[in-house]
Amino acid sequence: MQELQDAPLAPLTTFRLGGPATRLITATTDAEVVTAVREADDAGIPLLIIGGGSNLVIGDKGFEGTALRIATRGFSLTGTTLELAAGETWTDAVARTVDAGLAGIECLAGVPGSAGATPIQNVGAYGQEVSSTITEVVAYDRATREILTLANAECAFSYRHSRFKEHPERYVVLRVRFALEDAGGLSAPLKYAETARALGVAPGDRVPLDAARRTVLELRAGKGMVLDPADHDTWSAGSFFTNPILDDTAYAAFLARAAERLGPDVTPPAYPAGEGRTKTSAAWLIDRAGFTKGYGTGPARISTKHTLALTNRGHATTEDLLALAREVVAGVREAFGITLINEPVTVGVSL
Prior knowledge:
The chain has 9 helices and 18 strands. By secondary structure, it is α+β, with helices and mostly antiparallel strands. The two termini are 34 Å apart.
């Protein structure tokens, strides 16, 4: 294990924001990860787990404790069964499965971060969620001090949520296993209308795997959602807010507010989210509340490519970012009566 004192954390995040950690450990094996976690727990030292850093907002004062960077490696493909070490770069792993002719995660190409983070957030994009292909998650349980193998059903997956997110101080993901599909070089059926349109096919159709992957990468890049050090629109955590899910009463109230503000002919985006529940678009809410692409005059602004991404224009602080986020949350609440929830994990700060 590599160990540093008073170590900068900003370079380990896609926002490039945040102060230093008292101590930074980089672990390259599962055994090193478990050892570092146990040592911190035994000593009563606060512990921050860092993977790809694509979902972290760290306060300007940094983190008083041990930051553990998981840099484990491991890509194993046996038939249609995939196992990834938590530290594997997710988008690289997706590319390798496409090269192997296996479907199931091709529309998650370009998602930043590490493989170990995907079950925590139940990462999803362009019609796919990892919960549909994950079979098992191997994790260290800090409460029982054991390594557990949790089946899909035990992970309690839901929209951008899981057992691991529900109990963030308890589990440290070590490995993730997936069941992919051999569809003769074709993708899984396309579920996302935008992807299907870009490929000139209908939703439900299959297309060549690489065509699906390349199309998703192009769509993401057009929204600033593929990491590029030269493009400040990608100095972000991707989608900063989750899409709100409303019960029937809240949805009816939202429709009334939207009609009052925008006129009776405006129809907000709506997607079924289970019995008595409707999902709407956070990006739509933000835009219609007056926060358009490029909004802001300071060093933290809304992306010029996508209203759902808050960005560091190169010299922002975390407080600059949070001030913008709070402004957006307050504006959407005032306009539509909906309180947006941040998707990134906050460390030492809150909205």
